[in-house]
Write a structure and sequence with these properties.
Elements: H1 11-22, E1 27-29, E2 35-38, E3 48-55, E4 72-78, H2 84-94, E5 100-105, H3 108-123, E6 128-133, H4 154-166, H5 171-183, E7 185-191, E8 211-214, E9 225-228, H6 232-246, E10 254-261, H7 267-283, E11 287-294, E12 304-311, H8 314-321
Parallel strand pairs: 3-4, 3-5, 5-6, 10-11
Antiparallel strand pairs: 1-2, 2-4, 7-8, 7-12, 8-9, 10-12
């Protein structure tokens, strides 16, 4: 295993310290907790957003703490859900009196622990609502989920719900728009290589030199199948066909596109994939309103990418375009 770390036991703690040192104008770390909160938290009179999950997906989730997006991000161990207590502490730290929305990816551990934290906060009189993101169309159930996994589409939920909260909406209104995004976002990914969890010291799955996994999860969960590597246009065709079969879009529909790298895929290759996404959508009469290409939700050093489509209406377009200022994204 070759990694630029010190002790595998301290990778999350040292990463969070490094983030705060790099971005003190955005975030501070809660004492004794793996939690990043907005420097100016709590913000009185504003709904707060809290998200999080296992580490190893950077810039998710701490990179999205800031104006127009999250108020706090809770970091678990690598690929492991955070426990209820730090989630509870995050909720307490950011509640400005208008309630807190928890944005949770659909993994069994995350669901259980965020729910327990919500109950703890509500016992303190904090109003808490929860939405669960399940945008991955690859498989219906996986090693870590009952139902679909939550992957890169979660970033659109952070952005749009965060913009709604920043505009002064109520907790019920922020939750409603988050649910609208979840109902209209679909994703699917693929992997060229595995990744190595620092504590394990070895790849969590193996692929032959000419083999890829279609539909794998961001923790290395199995996808739909393995196949010989094909030209990227053919790979994109597979991913988009599955997405569009699940969320049919009429000619004239408008979408936001995200081509998300899993950490070890060059931008050159992501842009080539994006080229094919645009061509296929144009052939179907689907209009691309905005495009995002880069690393938004990664999987350690895994090579591969995912495609996300978000079906837009006028409200979602306005909120997508609203400014956001966070360590990872100046404007998304």
């Amino acid at each position: 295993m070759k990694k630029l770390i010190n002790n595998p036991e301290f990778v999350v703690e040292e990463m969070l310290e490094g983030i705060v040192m790099a971005h003190p104008q955005y975030v501070r770390k809660l004492e004794n907790e793996s939690v990043l909160v907005r420097t100016n938290s709590p913000i009185l009179g504003k709904v707060a957003l809290v998200s999080g999950g296992g580490s190893g997906h950077e810039p998710a989730h701490g990179g999205y703490v800031g104006s127009g997006m999250l108020n706090a991000a809770v970091a678990g161990a690598v690929f492991t859900s955070p426990t209820p207590n730090p989630i509870y502490e995050a909720v307490k730290a950011v509640d400005g009196g208008c309630g807190v929305l928890l944005v949770v990816k659909n993994y069994t551990g995350d669901i259980m622990n965020f729910e327990m934290a919500s109950e703890m906060a509500e016992m303190d009189g904090i109003k808490v609502e929860t939405v669960v993101v399940n945008d991955d169309v690859a498989v219906e159930n996986s090693l870590f989920t009952a139902g679909r996994r939550g992957i890169a589409g979660t970033v659109f939920v952070h952005k749009i719900a965060g913009a709604k909260a920043e505009a002064g909406a109520s907790l019920e209104e922020v939750k409603a728009v988050a649910q609208k995004v979840i109902a209209n976002v679909r994703s699917m990914g693929m992997a060229l290589t595995s990744c190595i969890v620092p504590a394990a010291g070895k790849p969590n799955f193996t692929l032959a030199e000419d083999e890829v996994e279609i539909g794998m999860g961001i923790h290395g969960e199995p996808g739909t199948h393995r196949e010989t590597l094909k030209p990227v246009d053919e790979v994109v065709d597979q991913l988009l066909s599955k997405i569009l079969a699940d969320m049919p879009l009429e000619s004239g529909s408008e979408v936001a596109v995200m081509v998300n790298g899993l950490a070890a895929t060059p931008l050159m290759e992501l842009y080539i994939a994006n080229r094919r996404v645009h061509k296929l959508l144009a052939e179907k009469g689907i209009k691309v309103y905005r495009t995002f290409v880069g690393e938004y939700m990664t999987a350690l050093e895994m090579a591969g990418f995912s495609v996300t489509l978000l079906k837009l209406d006028d409200e979602l377009k306005v909120l997508l375009d609203a400014p956001a200022d966070t360590p990872a994204l100046k404007v998304l």
